[in-house]
Design brief:
Layout (H helix, E strand, L loop, with lengths): L10 E12 L9 E13 L4 E5 L6 H8 L7 E6 L2 E2 L5 H4 L6 E4 L13 H12 L5 H14 L16 H13 L5 E5 L7 H18 L2 E5 L3 H7 L2 E6 L2 E7 H6 L4 H8 L36 H5 L5 E2 L5 E2 L4 H6 L1
Helix pairs in contact: 3-4, 3-5, 4-5, 5-6
Length: about 325
């Protein structure tokens, strides 16, 4: 189920699964599968930002890599502009690199220390737009540096000469220089100081408003997601727990897991109800609802039967057997 109609979607994800086969040498003594992403559905509209939140290990980064063609998909589908791109090989993905780009979590690790920042930003242009001449390529690089708030005079400097925030600006410039239609940001500010985080988030918002870019923004920090996203999707153990507009989700969260996440953030107004129990392994998730071992309202039905995403009172969707009851509370 999706809040954005399929006809209006630039990127459409259907029952997407990314599973990893595990060896037999495991505590339960049999081979199995680690379900990193397990049946995710959503649509992304042109010019929209979808925020994705959840604890470490929930599958956010695996989902991002699958959407960017960096991770093989087990089953399900990904469509971009109406075209099925799920099973494309490296050659099939090459022209799509112009359309879908990614900003990585670690700004230093994503840049080659032996290349100047100018060469790093120019590299995707050389690979994806070989028809562009050297002079135009250099002009685009300098213009992009200025757009991300770095002086063009820094073009011949190396990554080690920059701060983390400056390196992340370079990473953003490198992704946007090919003028993509979709930008996937995987924890782009988590390694930065709080003051620098705000600068990067504001930069992304400004660049999006200027170019009409569609963006998927993955983060742990709910305040950051609230600031930049139009819609928010909450993940837990590879599954979508809740999906709604930013205003609806922060004002009236429906799923117990979403409520617990928001309760941990000061100023959200959500009554704190601490979670108990350990997060199950994605290699051996509960048979019913994956959140059942930590949920304060779970019953025997939750133990046996996995819930599906159903419409909630806030207009979004929630994967909880008690969605109707919680919505009415």
């Amino acid at each position: 189920m999706n809040a954005v109609p399929a006809a209006a979607a630039l990127l459409a994800v259907r029952r997407l699964k990314v599973h990893y086969k595990l060896p037999a040498a495991l505590p339960w003594g049999r081979p199995g599968w680690l379900k990193a992403v397990d049946g995710v559905d959503f649509n992304l509209a042109p010019g929209e930002t979808l925020g994705i939140v959840g604890e470490s290990g929930c599958g956010k980064s695996t989902l991002a890599r699958a959407l960017a063609g960096l991770q093989a998909v087990t089953s399900g589908g990904i469509e971009f502009a109406g075209r099925n791109i799920t099973r494309l090989d490296e050659n099939g993905w090459r022209p799509l690199r112009r359309e879908i780009q990614m900003v990585f979590q670690d700004p230093l690790a994503s840049l080659d220390p032996r290349m100047t920042i100018g060469a790093s930003i120019a590299e995707p242009l050389e690979a994806l737009y070989p028809e562009i001449g050297r002079a135009e390529r250099a002009s685009r690089v300098l213009a992009m540096l200025e757009k991300v708030g770095l002086s063009a005079s820094l073009v011949n400097r190396y990554p080690h000469e920059f701060s983390g925030g400056q390196c992340q600006r370079v990473g953003i410039a490198r992704a946007l220089v090919v003028r993509p239609r979709v930008l996937i940001c995987d924890e782009p500010v988590s390694a930065l100081d709080v003051s620098i985080q705000a600068q990067i988030v504001n930069l992304l918002a400004d660049l999006q408003a200027e170019s009409g870019l569609s963006m998927i923004f993955i983060a742990h920090d709910l305040a950051v997601v609230r600031h930049i996203s139009r819609r928010v999707m909450v993940m837990y153990l590879g599954k979508v727990m809740e999906q709604a507009t930013r205003e609806a989700l922060f004002a009236s969260p429906v799923h117990p897991y979403t409520r617990a996440l928001l309760a941990a953030v000061p100023g959200t107004g959500v009554h704190r109800q601490p979670l108990e129990g350990e997060i199950p392994s994605p290699a051996d998730p509960p048979q019913g609802c994956v959140f059942v071992t930590r949920c304060p309202i779970a019953d025997t039905h939750c133990v046996r039967h996995p819930p599906t995403l159903v419409r909630a009172v806030h207009g979004g969707f929630s994967a909880c057997h008690f969605t109707a009851a919680v919505s009415a509370a």
